[in-house]
Design a protein that fits this description.
With 288 residues, the protein is of the alpha/beta class. Helix content is 49%, strand content 14%. The chain has a single domain (41-287), classed as Alpha-Beta Barrel (TIM Barrel). The protein has ten helices and twelve strands. Strands 2, 5, 6, 7, 8 and 12 form a six-stranded parallel sheet that branches. The protein has a two-stranded antiparallel sheet with strand order 1-11. The protein is globular and about 55 Å long. The protein starts with a helix and ends with a helix. It binds zinc ion. The site of zinc ion has 5 residues, from strand 6.
Amino acid sequence: MMKKILLGLLLLVVLAAAGAGVAWQLNGERWQQEYAAYRKTGAPVLMYHAVGNDEGADWPKTLIMKPELFEAHLRYLKEQGYTIVTVVELAERLQKGESVDKYVALSFDDGYKNNYSVVLPLLQKYDAKGSFFVINKDMGDETHMNEQEIKGLIDAGMELGSHTYSHGPLGKIPEKYLVWELDTSRYWLKKKFDGYIVRTLAYPNGSYNPTVIAAAKKYGFYRALTGHIGLNTAATYQAAPMEMYRVTVADDGNGLEGFKKRLEQAYFFGFLQTKGIDINVVRDIFVQ
Ligand SMILES: [Zn+2]
């Protein structure tokens, strides 16, 4: 009797596996076509930090990238026919429902000095734009851009964004500090940079919650970048402009191949989200 049940179970397992295989095959073909169409509907936002050679050896690899590798990214994007824009330019296209096929936005967090000395000339060489998210409190110290350098970025047509006043993890700090981190940051940048209006926020460490979103909107931010992987489409942007998707780009030791993989993840994870599978749920357990 026991043997029969076991055999029955075994048969069920084999049938289920075969069934899953068939379903995968059927969906696989359909999904492949859907995926090709989906890729054209959105644009990734890439997240960089420092780009340079001369920073201390103690800098974590996730924070600093060699200029040669960064240039290889730009060359690859151009070869692939991408238009490289600021976050605000991308957001405006998404808002209007204009095509963002083969668009990509580059973002740089923390405002490192080499964003001006290394990144800007490379962006200009490849007819590319970028958005730079500065931390007010760090401006002008040894490793971060000073006023003149940030002004140079603005004059070159780059976007200046806020990365809060002191890099506070907004989803974790007491609510009373949000006015300082958000409102003061925007006001201060406006004062320093001839009335420049900052409209885009990058959440430090990708930390935010509904209270943070409400405060950021109240203090004049129109959109914000998270650390969630996905693709920014007209649908995702119009539904949640304060939760734009972003892909971390770091030197993973695999050169340009590593970059290609990260870029593809923006499209692929975005596609899976349309199927109800969200990889970011796992990330939130650790961050929020
Ligand atoms: Zn940061």
